Amino acid sequence: MFKIVFTVVLCLFFGVATSQENAGLTFFNDLQSQSPGGGNLTIVQDTGIANLVGMHINANNRSKLIDGFRIQLYLGSNNNAKKEATQVKAHLLSLFPDERPYVVYEAPFWRVQVGDFRSKNEAFPLYKKLKSEFPACYPVPVNNIPLSNLK
């Protein structure tokens, strides 16, 4: 029984390692491919680098969430914080109906955030638009932005 389990685990390990290596090799092969009217690129490196890149590519493909930024409009923890957060959200939607607000509760704080951006620089134009109506707003780092939400 132990031999069977060991063999299955070993096969799975080598299968994952091979797929990671293939992903890394595919990436580097795509970089080196020639296009009409283009130049030549030759990459000389240890195969371990391709394996690490493949592992990174596979990890990114599994995780559909990234680190990014949103604009925080409200942060409160008083007795009326939930009601105030809902009012801020409604006010935002009345002024900017195309934006997607998030009302987030992380004890003891209620937050209202808007936008999904990869970087603070991408968030800056929205920040400038919101600043006149929400003078206390500011960009905040967020670590769970779905890739599908990015503009």
From TrEMBL:
Domain SPOR: 68-140
Keywords for the protein's UniProt record, in alphabetical order: Signal
InterPro entries: SPOR-like_dom (IPR007730), SPOR-like_sf (IPR036680)
Single GO term (MF): peptidoglycan binding
Taxonomic superkingdom: Bacteria
Signal sequence, start to end: 1-19
Annotated protein name in UniProt: Sporulation related domain-containing protein
Organism, scientific name: Saccharicrinis carchari
